[in-house]
Amino acid sequence: MADNNQMTIETMSSQYFDVLKEIGNIGAGNATTALSTMLGMKVDMKVPQVRLMEFKEVGTTMGGEEQIVAGIYLVVDGDIHGSIMFVQKKESARAMVQKLMGMPPEGDDFSEMELSALMEIGNVITAAYLNSLSTLTNLTIYPSVPTICIDMAGAILSVPAIEFGAIADKMLLIQTDFSDDETLSGYFILVPDEESDAKILHALGF
Amino acid sequence: MPQTVKVGIADLNVVKSPDLITTIGLGSCVGIAIRDEQLGIGGLVHVMLPNSKEVKSNENKAKFADTGIPELVSRLEKMGCVKRRMVAKIAGGATMFAFQSKSELSGIGDRNVAATKTALKALGIPIKAEDTGANYGRTVVFNPENGDYEIKAVGKPAKVI
Fold first, then answer.
1. Confidence band (pLDDT; 50, 70, 90) for A1?
2. Rounded Cα gap, residues A27 and A172, in angstroms
3. Interacting residues of A11 by C-beta distance below 8 A, sequence separation 6+
């Protein structure tokens, strides 16, 4: 049986939520700097939104379950175990690739080279988040090599949903808008396993 | 006016002809469509995980293959359907990300499909057609009148199984 005193993602206090928001904020700050260096241009960001999302909202959050999105997915190891996903609409992904490669993707699909550029962007951005989490909690976190998938939002987001599904009915979503001349927005989904959740909470002094 | 009823993730519902029933963006999840061949009544369940006994939060029956399928069958029975006239079609169970096979939830798509088959077999409901596995998402639309199960995927022509 679950220990009733142990805080879970569903009984999370607003204070813990604020801390997660702060981690998201710092992470997004780091990510923006990294992105700016990578793209060789100024990138601004808005304050990220952090919220718990029900499975049923999973698809609608990103403009419908059939919206085509690019998902970059990493497994996290070390003191905590889980996974992190960075999701962006296909148009945002195209815009980022264009910025990085200096030319728009040819045709409707991404080439190997463009996919690899996209993966690198995802890698840099997720690393920035994980760094802020690691720094604030003093926990060691190793990300795996990222993998990428471009498909319907419903299908992509079901992957973290399934991992969350094993422990709860909601998942944690951090929405970040990076904007320059056009809005490049992305979503992070953090999936720590149950034990790691407790570790993060403990490390943060809860 | 015929309607198309939408089933969400970890959700189920039943419809009567001429209505259709759909679920959008099946990834590793499996969409199980069952109908009574005589009545034109059918339903769809969108399961996420194979086994309700492996996890703590298992109140939502539609989340799991082992509880969602019997739940759908009992909903159909309440509408007058008879189990021995029921047939099933299944879709989904993809592996969306290449390294998922290495993670703890290894081959969750394959395990969902296997658990689906076990549950249907236990109920004595035959599988008429399936479109499972591979590495892409699927949107499905089920017609309880004739059993057509339309499958749509990104960058692929729609097909009916």
1. very low
2. 15
3. none
Q: Which domains does chain A have, with CATH numbers?
A: 14-203 (3.40.1550.10)
Residue A123 is encoded by which pair of tokens? 């890698």
Of residues A168 and B118, more confidence is placed in B118
Summarize pLDDT for A12-38 with one digit per residue, the tens. 566 667 777 777 778 778 888 887 888
User: Total domain count for chain B?
Assistant: 1
Question: What is the value of ipTM here, to two decimals?
Answer: 0.82
Q: B60 touching A, CB under 8 A?
A: yes
Q: Testing the interface with B: which of A62, A149, A150, A193 to mutate, by most B Cβ within 10 A?
A: A149
Cβ pair B24:A152 closer than 8 A? yes
CATH number for the domain including B89? 3.30.1330.200
| pLDDT single digits (tens) B137-149 | 999 999 999 999 9
| CB-based contact, B77 to chain A, within 8 Å | no
Q: Which of left, alpha, beta for B37 (phi over 0: left; psi -120 to 50: alpha)?
A: alpha
- The answer to whether the CB atoms of A156 and B138 lie below 8 A apart is no
The burial class, CB within 10 Å (0-12 / 13-18 / 19+), for A108 is exposed
B8 touches chain A (CB under 8 A): yes
* Residue numbers in B near A54 (CB within 8 A): none
Q: Which two tokens stand for residue B160?
A: 């009916």
Q: A75: which chain B residues are within 8 Å (Cβ-Cβ)? A: 99, 102-103
Query: Which residue range is the domain that position B111 belongs to?
Result: 4-160
The nearest CA of chain A is from the CA of B8 a distance in Å of 6
